[in-house]
Design goal:
mainly alpha
Length: 213
């Protein structure tokens, strides 16, 4: 049942000469019987005519595909005399044209290429290891340089000299010394300790780099 519906109503796919002749003869026989039994009927004959035209077009389109050509050639039937004759010879008597390997496997080749690309990318990431993947690939921000990271801790920006580094260090040490917030509780004291350690680490970095006394 499904193959019959595909033969008469689908416009995709291919059919051989045998299917073309069977489908065409059945539709022409149906038209002849309709003219005989439904003579004088107003509605039956137009409906069967429209249905037959649809089915014949679908049959020819699939047969054109089997000939390795576009189904739009079905419109060649609109050319008086020459068109139907050409269509009959081409579709009814000439053999099938098998698709070339390129056309036949175009979709499969594209899928294989995409699969190989994804496999190659996965292999590269695997060889690189998790520690060598960039933060951009992991979805995070790019890593900061040591200079910029320590400068942010001390609140420095742009080019600064040794005196500016020492002055900023003294201000932050005075502000975040743990003894100054000890009366606020252990939570604030722990935060101050952490900030104080970061300040000392940043100053030690610049002190060693710029040989600050």
């Amino acid at each position: 049942m499904l193959s019959v519906l595909r033969l008469y109503f689908a416009f995709s796919g291919r059919i051989k000469r045998t299917e073309f002749w069977i489908g065409t003869c059945v539709m022409l026989l149906l038209l002849g019987l309709t003219d005989y039994w439904a003579y004088g009927t107003i509605y039956v004959r137009p409906a069967v005519l429209i249905l037959s035209i649809w089915c014949l077009i679908a049959i020819q389109v699939k047969r054109w595909h089997d000939r390795g050509k576009t189904g739009l050639l079905v419109f060649i039937n609109l050319i008086p005399m020459v068109g139907p004759l050409w269509s009959l010879i081409e579709l009814g008597f000439l053999p099938s044209v098998e698709p070339s390997p390129t056309d036949k496997g175009a979709g499969q080749s594209q899928q294989r290429r995409e699969k190989e690309t994804r496999s190659g990318q996965s292999q590269q990431q695997s060889n690189a290891g998790p520690g060598r993947q960039s933060r951009k690939e992991a979805g995070g921000p790019p890593p900061l340089s040591d200079d910029l990271r320590h400068a942010q801790v001390l609140g420095l920006s742009g080019k600064v000299g040794r005196d500016e580094i020492k002055r900023r260090y003294r201000e932050l040490v005075h502000k975040y010394h743990p003894d100054k917030v000890s009366h606020l509780g252990d939570e604030f004291k722990a935060m101050a300790d952490q900030k104080f350690k970061a300040i000392n680490e940043a100053y030690s970095y610049f002190r060693q780099k710029y040989q600050i006394d």
